[in-house]
Specification:
The protein is an alpha/beta fold. It has helices spanning 90-97, 102-107, 112-121, 124-140, 156-172, 195-212, 230-242, 259-265, 279-285, 296-302, 309-314, 335-345, 350-357, 359-364, 392-395, and strands spanning 4-9, 11-13, 32-33, 36-41, 44-50, 63-66, 71-74, 76-78, 143-149, 176-184, 218-222, 246-251, 270-273, 291-294, 319-321, 382-385, 402-407, 410-411. The two termini are 22 Å apart. It binds N-(iminomethyl)-L-glutamic acid. Residues 82, 111-112, 115, 222, 250, 253, 298, 324, 326-329 line the site of N-(iminomethyl)-L-glutamic acid.
Length: 415
């Protein structure tokens, strides 16, 4: 593999620091450097420093990228997506525009269950093809690591079809793909009125199979009124933990039913959404090992409210942001757009938004020792943006500023 040298970088935010969560004021330190250079050897970062100190002899025959006037960042880590799905919900979008709520539409048989119908009819091959195309587009917008959940199959056959498709994409796609089992995304029609029966299926068959086959090392649940109660979620996630899986929750999104408190009780990796978390919920998160994953695009797309990012950060809770890319509540995979919304609507600083989109998101996925910052020894997942400062990433919205993407040391070409 040919070495790569990036030189004369106008604005480098390396996010150098501990290989774990950054909290409070540490979220505002992105380790900026001006007129910087990076040397990449064998797919890894070999050297980072000032251009005046660059020693080209450490990487003979390197491909050189002149980054004058450019910003360089670690590739974004999107730690919460539902990027594998079939069909489109543009008609529901029109219904919402005319005043119907996300919940109304779901209660009328639309919402998640409408995507389940489409996903069940798609073959594994089709799901892989459409998801691979989405992953390509995500990389073109600077995302180099992506978590993807199952949860639009909701039957033994269709959940396994999704997990197997994700497992194969993991081997075949250039992006780093992290699969999460979300069999408890909604109660499928076959179990309408009998959620306990569906939970039994998940607990006795699907979860043990997914864990045994290594299809996912994490289990997530949509813990919400009309979906899975706190008690049902506790039952499922306790089983998941006993099988050695990590646990995450969709928590406090539409209502406050105690989901984030349950996440803390179970030692969840993260509680995601938190639009409706209250002061007591924030107090419980404080001092726990559970991170908050905020999804600004869902609030924007559904019309608010937003998670209390300021309170969470100021109280020392590690915060990540993600796109939540899915056909119902956020049909966007743009991490820069999420950063813009986080800054304009949730009062996060550009530095906090960047930390939340890189190293903290990597920590949620257990990958902070490999990606999420530009430091010697880490994978060379690097993006080059046509922007004078890392602050422009959130500031200049609605355009793709990403000009080059380097994944594991490979300079990607986009058609
Ligand atoms: O995180 N809340 C549950 N899951 C997604 C929405 C999925 C859908 O509507 O298809 C979310 O917002």
């Amino acid at each position: 593999m040919r070495p790569v040298i990036l030189h004369h970088i106008a604005s480098l935010a390396s996010l150098a620091g501990p290989a774990g969560y950054r909290r409070s004021a540490d979220m505002r330190d992105v380790s900026p450097l001006h007129d910087a250079s990076i040397v990449i050897v064998d797919g890894h970062i070999h050297w980072v420093g000032r251009s005046t100190e660059l020693d080209r002899a450490t990487a003979p025959d390197a491909e050189e990228l002149d980054c004058t006037g450019m910003t360089v960042l670690p590739g974004f880590v999107d730690c919460h997506t539902h990027a594998m799905f079939a069909g489109s919900r543009h008609d529901e979008f029109a219904m919402r525009a005319s005043g119907r709520s996300y919940q109304d539409i779901a209660e009328a048989g639309g919402g998640i269950l409408s995507t389940v119908r489409a996903t069940r009819t798609a073959s594994k091959r089709e799901l892989k093809r459409t998801t691979a195309r989405r992953l390509d587009a995500m990389m073109e917008h600077g995302t180099t690591t992506v978590e993807v959940k199952s949860g639009y199959g909701l039957s033994e056959t269709d959940e396994l079809k999704m997990l197997e498709a994700l497992h194969e994409l993991r081997q075949e796609h250039l992006a780093t793909v992290v699969p999460t089992f979300l069999g408890a995304h909604a109660v499928p029609p076959e179990f309408a009125g009998n959620p306990g029966g569906y939970l039994d299926l998940l607990i006795t068959r699907l979860l043990p199979y997914a864990a045994r086959k290594g299809l996912s090392d994490t289990c997530d649940v949509f813990c919400e009124s009309g979906y899975f109660s706190v008690e049902q979620t506790r039952r499922l996630l306790t089983t998941a933990r006993s099988l050695g899986l990590k646990v995450r929750l969709h928590a406090d999104q539409l209502n406050q039913i105690g989901a984030s408190a349950l996440g803390v009780e179970l030692g969840a990796i993260s509680v995601d959404h938190l639009e409706c978390i209250d002061a007591a919920g924030i107090a419980r998160l404080r001092g726990s090992s559970t991170a908050g994953v905020l999804l600004p695009g869902a609030s924007f797309f559904l019309g608010g409210p937003y998670a209390p990012a300021r309170d969470l950060i100021d109280q020392g809770i590690p915060v990540a942001i993600a796109t939540n890319f899915n056909p119902g509540s956020c049909m966007s995979f743009s991490m820069p757009l999420m950063m813009t919304i986080a800054c304009t609507q949730m009062r996060m600083s550009p530095e906090e938004a960047l930390t939340a989109s890189t190293i903290n998101a990597a920590a949620v996925l257990g990958l902070a020792d490999r990606v999420g910052s530009i430091e010697v020894g880490k994978a060379a997942d690097i993006i080059v943006l046509d922007a004078p400062s890392y602050r422009s990433v959130a500031y200049e919205f609605g355009v793709n500023l990403v000009r080059r993407v380097i994944k594991n040391g490979v300079l990607l070409e986009f058609p």
